[in-house]
From TrEMBL:
Residue ranges that the Swiss-Prot or TrEMBL entry lists as coiled coil: none
GO BP: any one term: carbohydrate metabolic process
Similarity field: Belongs to the disproportionating enzyme family.
Protein species of origin: Nitrosococcus oceani (strain ATCC 19707 / BCRC 17464 / JCM 30415 / NCIMB 11848 / C-107)
Lineage: Bacteria, Pseudomonadati, Pseudomonadota, Gammaproteobacteria, Chromatiales
Protein's UniProt name: 4-alpha-glucanotransferase
A Pfam cross-reference name: Glyco_hydro_77
UniProt keyword list: Carbohydrate metabolism, Glycosyltransferase, Transferase
Highest rank taxon of the organism: Bacteria
InterPro entries recorded: GH, Glyco_hydro_77
PANTHER family: 4-ALPHA-GLUCANOTRANSFERASE DPE1, CHLOROPLASTIC/AMYLOPLASTIC, 4-ALPHA-GLUCANOTRANSFERASE DPE1, CHLOROPLASTIC_AMYLOPLASTIC
NCBIfam families: malQ, PRK14508.1-3
Molecular function (Gene Ontology), one example: 4-alpha-glucanotransferase activity
Length: 482
């Protein structure tokens, strides 16, 4: 690709912001950037940054544009000049943000107020829908919007007219929270870029049903006038599931989106380009064709493949933004048509080493079958750690793995980590859990499981061995990724 991120070989680490010791944009995030720079790592891959539901999944957010206020560093907030000398409850994010908002309205300088006003103007194309949605949601005890009174379902800003002082205050506080999030994120991203580190973000293909996006623009999604799903996203039965998977997301009304010049997608990508240097498109195959499941289905068996206008969408994106730093998540059962769409726009795909050791010599994940225009991973946020995966294998399969790797002298996980950095792939990314040599206790997500510890893992600095940065830097340098 011609994009700056893919001009040369790079090494990366996958770690979501919530997995930092402080789980926010505070001092630990800056310390982590320092660690990356010391290790010679130039790509920090994260998960989506949006506000999550109670299950904490960053792939089912309340907005495709907004940042998660829970990622705001309360310590940095308390250090703002307008906050003044005041106790802040660092244990309660909600209370602390209310306190910050009140002090901002009372004591902020004219300069910072002007910065806030400029932010609200520039982001109005999504911000006003979002803050009204969130304000209404709070008045409805955070119930999903499609369970609200009928008069509040759909985009009702004009119908509401004067929204009342309570809603006005809630809306303004939500504007403030987004202002603070984007301000803190911009500072962190600038710090990372200044240390030679690119931010590799993640964009889920589908949108949560309970989101500001579907509430504000229901005509773009498969929902009826009451907000109920008429069709939903998922994947068909396969080797991993005899009944497939029902994700519960609405699908897109692609004809309407295309009639509007894909403006909704253009705005979405505009936000992501502000947040990140590289963007992974999750479930890329859904932009070529997607599995449509009738609403109310308990399984994904009775679905059908429906063609998506992926080529037209990418042409519209290129017309607006030029060649984009996108990566296609092309894992799973991929058809020649999906490969063709990816290759037509020269998008790097993904190779996951944990998938390399089943099947025959034509397995595309085997190191010898890698392509230069791809990103290689030891595993992703949906996989077990290297040690957890390797230890679950039979002795024969472990032997087979080492045989495929040429019987390296390093034990796991470092044998597979070195294999990733050695790959011809332009980018090699390793989850932090693997670098910390963690077992299954470090797994970030177990797909299809809700009642567990998904999305809650984080590391602590004592887990980082004193020589870890130097060990990583040696591999990065040795394999031409420095």
């Amino acid at each position: 690709m011609k994009d700056r991120p893919f001009r040369r070989r790079r090494g990366g680490i996958l770690l979501h912001v919530t997995s930092l010791p402080g789980s926010n944009l505070g001092i630990d995030a800056y310390r982590f950037v320092d660690f990356l720079a010391e290790a010679g790592i130039t790509v920090w891959q994260i998960l989506p940054l949006g506000p999550t539901h109670e299950d904490l999944s960053p792939y089912q957010c309340l907005s495709v544009h907004a940042g998660n206020p829970k990622l705001i560093s309360l310590q940095f907030l308390a250090e703002e000049p307008w906050f003044g000398v005041c106790d802040i409850d660092l244990s309660d994010c909600g209370v602390a943000l209310w306190q910050g908002y009140r002090r901002f309205t009372l004591y902020a300088s004219q300069a910072i107020r002007a910065e806030f006003a400029a932010f609200c103007r520039e982001q109005a194309f999504w911000l006003e829908d979002y803050v009204l949605f969130q304000a209404l949601r709070e008045t409805q005890d955070n119930a999903p919007w499609f369970e609200w009174p009928q008069k509040l379902r759909g985009h009702v800003f004009k119908e509401l007219g004067a929204v009342g002082q309570e809603l006005e205050t809630l809306m303004d506080r939500n504007r403030f929270e987004q202002f603070i999030f984007f301000r803190q994120w911009s500072r962190l991203k600038n710090y990372a870029n200044g240390h030679g580190v690119l931010i590799f973000g993640d964009m889920p293909i589908f949108v949560a049903h309970d989101s500001a996006d579907v509430w504000a623009r229901p005509e773009y999604f498969t929902v009826d006038r009451g907000g109920r799903l008429t069709a939903m996203a998922g994947v068909p039965p396969d080797y991993f599931s005899a009944t497939g998977q029902c994700w519960g997301n609405p699908l897109y009304q692609w004809d309407r989106l295309e009639d509007d010049g894909f403006s909704w997608w253009l705005e979405r990508v505009r936000t992501q380009l502000k947040l990140c240097d590289i963007i992974r498109i999750d479930h890329f195959r859904g932009l070529e064709s997607y599995w449509e499941i009738p609403a109310g289905s308990k399984t994904a068996v009775k679905g059908r493949w429906v063609k998506a206008p992926g080529e037209a969408l990418f042409r519209a994106l290129e017309d607006s933004y030029g060649s984009l730093p996108l990566v296609a998540e092309d894992l799973g059962v991929i058809t020649p048509a999906v490969d063709a769409l990816r290759d037509q726009f020269h998008l790097p795909g993904m190779k996951v080493l944990q998938f390399a050791f089943e099947g025959g010599p034509d397995n595309p994940y085997l190191p010898e079958n890698h392509l230069e225009n791809c990103v290689v991973y030891t595993g992703t946020h949906d996989n077990d750690t290297i040690l957890g995966w390797f230890n679950s294998l039979s002795e024969d399969k472990r032997h087979h793995v080492y045989e495929c790797l040429g019987f390296p002298t390093e034990p796991m996980p470092w044998a597979l980590i070195e294999c990733a950095f050695q790959s011809v792939a332009k980018h090699a990314v390793v989850p932090m859990q693997d670098l910390l040599e963690l077992g299954s206790e470090g797994r970030m997500n177990l797909p299809g499981m809700i009642e567990n510890n998904n999305w809650r893992w984080h590391f602590n600095w004592p887990q980082v061995k004193p020589d870890l940065a130097a060990r990583i830097r040696y591999l990065v340098s040795h394999y031409g990724r420095l």
